[in-house]
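quick one: cytidine-5'-triphosphate bound model?
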Amino acid sequence: MDTTLKISKIKDGTVIDHVPGGMAFKVLSILRVDDLHENSVSIGIRVPSGKMGQKDVIKVENRYLERVEVDKISFVAPEATISIVKNYNITEKYRVELPEKVIGFIRCINPNCISNAREPVSSEFKLVSRAPISIRCEYCERSMSEREILQNL
Ligand code: CTP
Ligand code: ZN
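yep, here:
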């Protein structure tokens, strides 16, 4: 008896693999999957993985990710691999990478930060540490931990 859980291969689209167990929900919200009407999405939550013990896998059909989506995913799944599938073949495969500079998509946790005021100023952070993840605001110097980042993504 084959007891292995298999998620079907996709014909065209994007596979986000090696996501820490349970983090698929965060990835789905980054991709705003609830707003998608036509794309099929397959999700494996806490499936067995040789390397990670358990992992999540997200397969989105007929969709390719934008840079900002990949950057956001790097904060919830720093080890994730992204595979681009075309006609069942992987045409591109890469690891996500935490950006050294994070511009525009994380809200500074300091309510008094200029980037939170009604000014045309985008938030801007520098990556200070990868494990655990830590970033520092370029405007107010406030550091944000992994947990704070996930809440403000
Ligand atoms: N995949 C898919 N549909 C395809 C081809 C690949 O859904 N037509 C998925 C695979 O199921 C896997 C991911 O894309 O989750 C990467 O595929 P591949 O590199 O072939 O798998 P592995 O060698 O197992 O990858 P890794 O070593 O990165 O775990
Ligand atoms: Zn700030």
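The pocket of zinc ion (ligand 2) is lined by residues 108, 110, 113, 115, 137, 139-140, 142 (CB under 6 Å).
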